[in-house]
Every structure is written in C-alpha cells, then in structure tokens.
Design brief:
Helix content is about 45%, strand content about 15%. The chain has about 400 residues and is of the alpha/beta class.
Length: about 400
C-alpha cells in the first residue's frame, strides 16, 4: 500500500531542541533523545468514513512530532497502518450494500488526499492489515506455542496474564478495563475465556465474512491488536520511540499491543513513550462514526476552505486537550491565516531570529502548538503595526511556519 506525497520541509538556521512529551505509561513528561533515526508508529484509520476532524487532529499531533525531530537534524522512520479488514468496516459495507474491499480502497484514497492537502508528512511504510497477514500468522503461532495464547471454539485468544507488565500503559483498574473492552471491540462476556480481558488474536472464519489461510490456526482473520504489533515489529523493532494515536486507543489497543509484543520478545517496553491525542467533539459529544456527528476535511475543502486554515484550527488546541469543533474555531483560523499572510507579504520586517527559537521552544515542550501560534501572532501584529527593516525576516517567518507547523504561507 502506498502513502501520499511528501511536501518539502524547509531547513532552518540552527538546530531544534529534543522533545519533551507526555507519556501515558509513566503519566508524566519524558525527554526523548533518539539516535540519528527517530522511530514512531501511529495507528491508522479503519477506512469506512475518512477523514473527520478527530482523525485530522490526531495525525496533526504526530506530524508535529516528526517536524520537531527533523529540526534536530535527525531522520524519522514513521510507520502507519490501515485497518482495512475489521468488524466496523464489514458492517458498514453490508449496511450500505458495498463491497468491503471497494469501500476500504475508496476511503483510504480520500484519506490520502486529505493528508496531502493538510501537508501531513507521510509514513515511510503505510501497511494494510490484509497485506500484513502473512507476518501476523507466525506471531500468533509463536504466542500459542509459548503458552501465551489458547484456543476457544476455533478462535485464538491472548492471555493477558502472560505479560507481567500488563496494565502498565493505561493504568486502569480491572473493572474500568472490562467496561472499555466491551465498548471498544472486545468480548469480556464470552464464556470459556481464561480472563474476561483476553483479546482475540485470530478469529476463525465466519460464514459470509472474508478469511485467509492461517496455517495451523485454520482459516480466519487477525485480531485488531496483533495487526499493529506485527507491522511495528517488522519495520521498527522493539523499543521504538513513540507509539501514538488517539486517547481512545490507550486501552485496549495500545495496552494489548504492548503485551503482545512483550510476550513475543521477552523485552520491555515495546515503546519508549505512549502518546495520545485528545478527542474532538461536535454538539456536545465526541466526534465519532458511530454517532454520525462528523465534520469531514474533504467536505470543508470542497466548500472552498483553505487547508492551511483547517490546519491552523487544529493547531489552536493543545494536542492532548479534548475540544469542540465550532464555526468560530474555523473563522478564527481563517482570520489568523489572512493576518499571517499579510505580515509576511511585506518586502522587509521585524527581525525573526528570536521567533524561530520561541516556536522551537514551544513545540519541544509537549508540542505546545497554541504557544507557538501566539508567538507568531505577536510577530505578525507588530509587523503589521510598525514593520521593520530586516529584508530576511518575512522569508524566515514563512519558512519557520512551514517547517515547524506545516502551514504554507
């Protein structure tokens, strides 16, 4: 599966700072100092409704991570998956009378278009669950053979008790885990499981549903969590720098994935930091496909909204915050974009060397994009009010906003 084209990232004078970021597993900030190549895995879409503002906010957060690392003169090895076979996708295809593969391909293509328009840097490896199945099957067999998995009526489950670190990502108690498991794709009430929280690794073939050869597992399809583990281990190995996604993935997805990987390898941790973006709401509820309260990037683009304004709307909220999408949020972003463009359109301006460092400092401090925007606002307001004589300043500000915030002026 191919990703989308990369926009050029301008080089800035000097060097950026190492990233301090909030790690869900330690419940505090950690300073990440990767080697020459920083490694990040971000969980991708299930392609049956793409791309709403919740998606866009999440991928914007991890795009900022990449930009901070690139500014430190590191390379970034970024991997993202597409869950192109899963119950919600199959249910939507059945409801709407579509072929599930065509639905997945169409929505994935739209997601690529939206990511390109928003200037999100693409992953080096963009892997669908279906294409990962040949690598998933041996991992499930290894877990089973090691006693970390078991069969139940033809399905194969992971035993959470096989990982002594289970629970260390989300820090939830058993009852909270059980409730979230039922809400987010698990089956804690199924009789016969060793532990209600045990997640499925391999689902035996069901009538009328797609299935693949699972060797000794029989025909079927993979569980949600093992899919990402197989892709991450194949392309990044253990101990990569960031496992990222929305806050609703902390449990069960990232918790289970970490335990799968740790049981497979005997190593800890799977990732040095687990980083989660907040939820975007609309009309008082989390924006989600199940509720149908979605604002789509593609619809805004079709209505004539500049993608740079959409990106500024996302950047105006801290990535870990839960926030509400409103018409005013977008109007404020449009006005900000116009003000910034007016400021950099002048032939000279107020010296901007200090601004570059302000933006760097804000983003290195847990991706504080609102503080970075406020710094650019101050420069733009002063530039429009009084101007300056530095001929290099407008170009430097444009390059800084492009390189670090992904906004083309």
């Amino acid at each position: 599966m191919h990703a989308w084209p990369a926009s050029e990232v301008p080089a800035l004078p000097g060097k950026g700072r190492d990233l301090q970021i909030h790690d869900t597993s330690t419940q505090g900030k950690v300073t990440l100092s990767p080697g020459p190549v920083a490694r990040i895995y971000v969980c991708g879409i299930t392609p049956y409704d793409a791309t709403h503002m919740g998606h866009a906010a999440t991928y914007n957060a991890f795009d900022l991570v990449q930009r901070v690392w690139l500014d430190t003169k590191r390379q970034v090895h970024y991997v993202q998956n597409v869950t192109d076979v899963d119950d919600p996708l199959l249910e939507r295809a059945l409801r709407d009378g579509h072929d599930w593969t065509e639905l997945a391909e169409r929505e994935t293509a739209l997601f690529r278009e939206d990511m390109t328009a928003l200037r999100m840097l693409p992953p080096q490896h963009y892997i669908g669950a279906v294409e990962a199945i040949p690598g998933i099957v041996p991992l499930v067999e290894r877990l089973r053979d090691a006693g970390a998995a078991y069969e139940l009526d033809g399905d194969t489950y992971f035993s959470v008790e096989s990982d002594p670190h289970f629970g260390g990502v989300s820090h939830l108690d058993a009852e909270a885990m059980r409730l979230l498991s039922a809400e987010r794709g698990g089956d804690p009430e199924r009789p016969g499981k060793k532990n209600p929280l045990d997640p499925m690794l391999w689902m035996a073939a069901r009538p009328g549903e797609p299935s693949w050869d699972g060797a000794s597992l029989g025909r079927g399809r993979p569980g949600w969590h093992i899919e990402c583990v197989a892709i991450a281990l194949d392309h990044l190995g253990m101990g990569f720098d960031i496992q990222g996604g929305g806050s609703d993935l902390a449990f069960p997805h990232h918790e289970m994935g970490a335990s799968h990987a740790q049981a497979l390898t005997g190593e800890f941790p799977m990732a040095k930091a687990y980083v989660h973006a907040g939820m975007v709401g609309l009309n008082g509820a989390k924006m989600s496909k199940s509720k149908g309260n979605l604002v789509f990037v593609s619809a805004l683009r079709r209505s004539g909204v500049d993608p740079a304004a959409i990106r500024l709307a996302l950047l105006s909220h801290h990535y870990r915050s839960d926030w509400e999408w409103t018409d005013q949020v977008l109007a404020d972003a449009v006005a900000r974009l116009e003000r910034w463009r007016a400021a950099v359109s002048r032939p000279d301006g107020i010296a901007a060397d200090a601004l570059v460092e302000e933006v760097r400092e804000a983003l290195a401090d847990d991706l504080d994009a609102p503080a970075a925007l406020a710094a650019v606002d101050r420069w733009a307001d002063a530039q429009i009010a009084t101007g300056g004589s530095d001929e290099s300043a407008p170009g430097l500000v444009s390059r800084t906003v492009d390189a670090l915030l992904g906004v083309a002026l």
